[in-house]
Amino acid sequence: MTMLSPPSSANGAAQRGLDRPGEDEAQPGAGPAPPWWGLRDSRRARLRIRTLVFVRWLAVFGQLATVIFVAGVLRFPLPLAACLTLIALAAWMNVLVWLASSTGQRQAADWEATAQLAFDILQLSGMLYLTGGSINPFSLLIIAPVVLAAATLPLRHVLGIAILAIVCIVGLSMTSLPLPGPSAVAPDIPLVNRVGNVISRILGIAFCAGYAWQAASEAARMELALDTTNAVLAREQRLSALGALAAAAAHELGTPLATISIVAKEMARGAGEGTTLKEDADLLVSQAERCRDILRRLTSDPDATDDVHGHMSLGQLVEEAIAPHTKDTEVRVEAVISGPRGEDPPEVRRLPEVLHALTSYVENAVDFARSEVLITARFDDRAITLEVKDDGPGFSPDIYAKLGEPYVTSRPGAEGSRSGHIGMGLGFFISKTLMERTGGVVTFRNGKAGGAVVTVRWPREALAAVTDGNGTLS
Description:
By secondary structure, the chain is of the alpha+beta class. 51% of the residues lie in helices and 10% in strands. The protein has helices at 49-73, 80-101, 110-130, 143-152, 155-174, 191-270, 276-300, 314-322, 352-368, 427-437, 460-463; strands at residues 2-4, 311-313, 332-338, 347-349, 372-379, 383-390, 441-446, 452-459. The protein has a six-stranded mixed sheet. A two-stranded antiparallel ribbon has the order 2-4. Strand 7 and strand 8 form a beta hairpin.
């Protein structure tokens, strides 16, 4: 078992958390947030004109086929002229909308989509009024525009569409022409049945619209969270690429600089004292040494990642994760490495995903710990395990089952947090996603003596650096 002491040179300031918006991201002129009824998920899809037109054509042809079948095949009495007029009105509406939008690929504005969906509800309600009202089996179709609105529009527009649909359903239950049939006489339906019919339609609207709203919101939030994860990973990969470029330059320039230094020393040795050639040769030697010092610092930078620096020891991995917090006077951060007796910790691949996610777990633990955070790295011939444990209050029971999902946080007002920042609930999701991309399995739990415990376990071959036939790490 190895106890790691804090490194002598730590980064100046702790890294900003994955779920903390930067100060430079604030928009002072953006104005106050909209009220709850005007909320729209930032990634929620908008309706295209083409979609509205296509759905309305389906309704037009479906209504036309039904009217022709009832009047022409079944020969039931039907206000045919009025029905065909409403169908023609919907078709004419489609033609006008298509001509106004040329290609139909344009996204409809919220008010425009709301107006068109309201037209669809009113047109369908007119058809239902002419054909039996709420007892018409096709009256269920009035739910469709509400569901479409719930999946694509802000809440205030959804509420408006839903209220309009409910008003139409109540009106159709109170008055309508008889349902087409052999006798064409309005059936005498008891009042309790009519009320039950209306209630069932209203509940259907509420349930279907609520389900569509929630599903669309979750999909939009998940897409945004995944995009954030990809952005974090891309940033880490860019940093690794810069480190690799610096290391490659250091290796490539090492040999010519050594040659320049040797030649300059020979020139200085052959030149006479006090001559211009002697001064120039000494200057070349000093500048070559300076270049070699710069390259030496580049190659010793732990962020450099090329064939030589593309791996690190397990201890270095843990040290790099705890480095920003070693100067914290309130919380003691310690790391322990344990493995089979007499076996050195393995070399592991330098993966930006692992470094970023592990740093996030350590930072979160420091944020909530009372006095101590312990990072344990275990290894054997089958697996490598990292565990981050603090002595804080542990995970809240309210979010315990949802840990690792996007937008899950127990500190909307930063209660219990040392730093006091307001989390968005993306940090654990991003870190878990990054770890899983490297083959790790992430688990969250509360310790028996209290405190939160985050454990990541990899198969050894997923994280350990491999060696070639000559024993060289790669």
